[in-house]
Amino acid sequence: MTLRIGIAGISGRMGRLLQEEVAAAGGTLSGGIGRDGDAAALFAGSDAVIDFTNASTAERHAGLAAEHGKALILGSSGLSAAQETAVMAAAKHVPIVYAANFAPGVNLLFALAERMGAALPPEQYDAEIVEMHHRQKVDAPSGTAIGLGRAVARGRGRTLEEVGMESGRDGHTGARATGPIGFAALRGGQVVGEHTLLFAAGSEQIALTHRSFDRRVYATGAVRAAQWAAGQPAGLYDMKHVLGMG
Q1: Record's family (predicted)?
Q2: Is 133 a catalytic residue?
Q3: Among 4, 92, 121, 209, which one has the highest count of C-beta atoms within 10 angstroms of its own C-beta?
Q4: Domain limits at 88?
């Protein structure tokens, strides 16, 4: 049976790319909604729904996925703690792939970030993350940047909330503290997405950079995630599971 995939946010740039990628992957587009639309009907008529809208709809869409027993691929960034809690609650009933980024290369970068965080102690290596996106992006730091920070912190045996974030430095801030992870967000033009993770010590510096040149890589990854999730038991997954790294 052909997988029926619905798209929340179908009228945006990502929505148009997702339509093309659903067809390219041999799936069936079951429908889509824009800013307004019957989300309940979309979930009822789909096997999986891909949601690249915004944080404000994440809780409702996760709830509808659980209510209708359908897989959800969630790519919205900037979710609050309460919204993430709602997504986790829904994942007890249906498979949800919630990822900061659906590009395979970025998810390999997450894996490297965790390993490097474990190998490079914070007392000797300061971790800094620099990201740049198009001028229309509304949240900062980006979800991918925060994902990198979480990976580094996880490698160091802690959470990002525990190690702390330093961002928006301005004026006489004093010396850099030991332990927190630094974030810098740049916005301008139509940059699809650039992320650099730096580990800086007194005697060396290591930098890992990923650049996205085409948003299609996110659409291709999201459709791949939908195909994978439709056959999984209930649970909260991310792209490392889809790529076989989890």
Answers
A1: Belongs to the DapB family.
A2: yes
A3: 4
A4: 4-102+215-242
